[in-house]
Amino acid sequence: MQRMSLTAEKLSAGNKLAGKLLAPWLLAGLLAVALPLHAAMAGEDATPWQGTDEAAARLIIGQNGLDAAGKVWLGLQFRLKPGWKTYWRNPGEAGAPPLFDWQASENLAAVEVKWPAPRRFSSFGFDSFGYHDEVVLPILLQAASPGKPIRARLNLDYMVCLNVCIPMQGKWTLDLNPATKLSSGPASATTRLIHRYLDMVPLAAPSSGLEIRMVSVSGPVGKQILRVTARAAKPFLDPDLMVEAPEPFGFGRPKATFSSDGHDLTLALPVYAGIGKAELTDQALVLTLVDGRRAMEHHLTLGK
Question: Torsion angle, CA of 266/268/269/275, rounded to 10 degrees?
Fold first, then answer.
């Protein structure tokens, strides 16, 4: 989940994206794609696609207007050519996350982005986290003044990669009015699509059927190992763990050890501590444990 006020959301998208690009030797053939400044609605529930044959994005609307509290669900839908990928909020060892700029919006108080569980990609000796084929990021908008329209303006920077990487941009304007009445018919295709991807967002224990039981770190500085023990209501099949921590920390691919019945799991991850070899001691971490269609998110502070 990514939740922010508009002031916290203010981004220098070009500078941040440039700072998170892949290593220069992976950027041969880099192509910047500039897209139209304004996108008119293609219909009542989606903007036109913006992008290339390799990747395109659009906004979809999940209901017939702002509800009584001034909220509305959107979805940022990515369409990717086979073999291409785009990135999660934490791209891993390579890539760059989507960067959202809503600053030009009117009557918009807050934005909450939900992140479906990612998958791990390995190429050129690097591991990254993201999505392939198609993904929808559900986005909840909150009006500053409920009962009044939101004029939502999104400038988006994101990256897609195959053997080369392409930084992409999208720019959309949506006029979102308060609903005149509640919809009594069946859910629209875009509403169903947003809810499909909301169901893929990692849950907290025990709703996910997964549980993080213990987290510890051991070893000398520069060679530390993060160990995570977990339990599953149904036996683990193909688990993976993504760990988010403050800079300069990163984490390698986890080594898994299973109990005899498959319900218990220990994951050991090498800690990458940057050039200065910082020590992982009492930092705040976010753990995303994925096992097939099951996924959970766990927040903790080491040592507490």
Answer: 150
What span, in angstroms and rounded, lies between the C-alpha atoms of 206 and 186?
A: 31
Q: Which residues of 30-67 are buried (b: 16+ CB within 10 A; e: fewer)?
A: eeebebeeebeeeeebbbeebbeebbbbbbbbbbbbbe
pLDDT digits (tens, 9 = 90+) for 53-76: 999 999 999 988 899 999 999 999
**Average pLDDT value for residue range 285-302:** 97
Which residue has 């080491």 as its token pair? Answer: 302
> Averaged over 214-236, what is the pLDDT?
97
The enclosing H or E element of 123 equals: strand 119-123
CA distance 116 to 70: 24
Reported as type and span, the H/E element at residue 190 is helix 189-198
59 with 48: CB under 8 angstroms?
no
In the chain the domains, ranked by start, together with CATH numbers, are: 2-198 (2.60.40.1250), 210-301 (2.60.40.10)
CA distances for 181 relative to 43, 63, 65, 71, 116, angstroms: 19, 11, 9, 14, 30
CA distance 43 to 212: 44
pTM of the entire predicted model: 0.86
285 and 252 Cβ atoms separated by less than 8 Å: no
| Omega cis (within 30) before 202 | no
Query: Kind of pairing, strands 108-113 and 99-101?
Result: unpaired
Q: Which of 161, 116, 113 is nearest to 135 (CA)?
A: 116
Question: Is residue 100 very low, low, confident or very high in pLDDT (cuts 50, 70, 90)?
Answer: very high
Strand residues in 162-238 grouped as ranges (E): 165-176, 210-218, 225-232
The average confidence (pLDDT) of the chain is 87
Contact 154, 100 (CB under 8 A): yes
